[in-house]
Amino acid sequence: MSGVTVVITPLLSLLSDQVNKLRERGINACYIRSSMPNEEESVLHEMTLKDTCYKLFYLTPEAATSERLMKHFDQMNKVGVLGRFVIDESHCIDTCGSSFRPSYAELGCLRAFKRPFHAFTGTATVRTQNVIVERLHMEDPDIIKMPSERSNLFFKVIPKNDQKSKDDVVKLIIDDFRDKCGIVYCSTRRDTKDLAFLLKTRGISAVHYDGALDDMEKEQNSSAWLSGRAKVMWLLGWELINKMYGL
């Protein structure tokens, strides 16, 4: 495919990981975020060159709908390098666009550049599909669906003793999942730290991830888990999931 593909994704913590994996496969990709102001200008300048080396450009909906980026998209379009827009986790247009992250509801403004639009999600009801189509101003779009059933996923309820519930979780991980990768959803930030500490004392490489961490700590911890340096467990505070996805 010709031109630069602009990928809009909600998670800052995964931007660098996705770009690094693409680069490992020989695909020239880049991203920008507020914590890298010195690199941002260079990336944006390269993006508007007719012979730009980039194939994929990752950013958040807040950045994509900003006045500054809209001007860069216009310049990219004029020189013929703006290929298409891809909206990842597009259900957020419905679940987050009304209040928590209004920029998701504003992504339809990118239709002004008259480039192809693609929206991807694994969790869209019929209602959410209709909201996505409406807010992205799609006319008679092709909708491709896959079965929602995942044979490798299952639910299991294990009663816990409140007095030693953390110990029970640690024992379960050590006994049944020692060499496997996984996520533990906790109810509080304190729990994420406590469980990570308990796992480390038992020889299990673990990191925690919650809303109180700064951007650098979030990226370091998520990278450790995604790369396998944190072998077994990434501990993620449930309240952060609520903030990310507006649940």
Automatic annotation (TrEMBL):
Reaction equation(s) it catalyzes: Couples ATP hydrolysis with the unwinding of duplex DNA by translocating in the 3'-5' direction
Pfam families: DEAD
Source domain of life: Eukaryota
Keywords from the named record: DNA-binding, Isomerase
Enzyme nomenclature, EC number: 5.6.2.4
InterPro entries cross-referenced by the UniProt entry: DEAD/DEAH_box_helicase_dom (IPR011545), Helicase_ATP-bd (IPR014001), P-loop_NTPase (IPR027417)
Residue ranges constituting the Helicase ATP-binding domain according to the UniProt record: 1-144
Any one of the GO CC terms: chromosome
Top enzyme class: isomerase
Recorded family membership: Belongs to the helicase family. RecQ subfamily.
Name of the protein this chain belongs to: DNA 3'-5' helicase
Organism encoding this protein: Paramuricea clavata (Red gorgonian)
Lineage: Eukaryota, Metazoa, Cnidaria, Anthozoa, Octocorallia
